[in-house]
Amino acid sequence: PLLSSLPSSWDAAYERELQTFQDIGDTGEIWFGEESMVRIIRWLEKHKVPLDSSVLDIGTGNGVLLVELAKSGYMNLTGIDYSPSAIQLAEKVREKEGMSNIKLKVEDFLAPSAELSGFDICIDKGTFDAISLDPSDAAGKRKLYVASLGRVLKPEGFFLITSCNWTKEELLNEFREGFEILEELPTPKFCFGGRIGNSVTALVFQRQ
């Protein structure tokens, strides 16, 4: 497995959340919080992205973003995650919300199955970050990620990435082959030692 150093800790986290969900019906941690989901949905609505567009959530976690997209009227939704516990949790969340049109699959995005292709929109909140932190060959894995994205996203398709590890310039550099930036989405600013910076970068790319 390409992400061999990651899954054990992620799996453990999701197993805890799965237990919590079964005990009290709580979906657990929403990484990046509500505002990043609102930002993504607003962008799709502002650009009148058709509700039947095929959307892939890369590293879906508990699947909450997909539920919010479904509530906003999107009908063709797929979530993948490397962690089987995450997909189990997302399935429970999907059942609780009665969202039967959300497809969920255990997939390693760095070695995607053949059926993972032809998406109009790919969304990533923190998965590229996690891959980038992998101590074994992070640079090679980032290249694999970009290659996979080129395979699963249609030409002219949109890629929305939210990152708390990478600046806009760094992301432009990572995705320079085959993707061009459409816009940067506004994210909360933080002030540290008198300097204002962004803790989160959110960009929209289009596949060339």
UniProtKB/TrEMBL annotation:
InterPro entries: Efm4/METTL10, Methyltranfer_dom, SAM-dependent_MTases_sf. CDD domains: AdoMet_MTases (cd02440). Residues 54-183 form the Methyltransferase domain. It catalyses: L-lysyl-[protein] + 3 S-adenosyl-L-methionine = N(6),N(6),N(6)-trimethyl-L-lysyl-[protein] + 3 S-adenosyl-L-homocysteine + 3 H(+). One of its GO terms (cellular component) is cytoplasm. GO terms for biological process: methylation. Pfam families: Methyltransf_31. GO terms for molecular function: protein-lysine N-methyltransferase activity. The keyword Lipoprotein does not apply. Keywords: Cytoplasm, Methyltransferase, Nucleus, S-adenosyl-L-methionine, Transferase. HAMAP family: Methyltr_EFM4. This is EFMT2 methyltransferase. It comes from Loxia curvirostra.
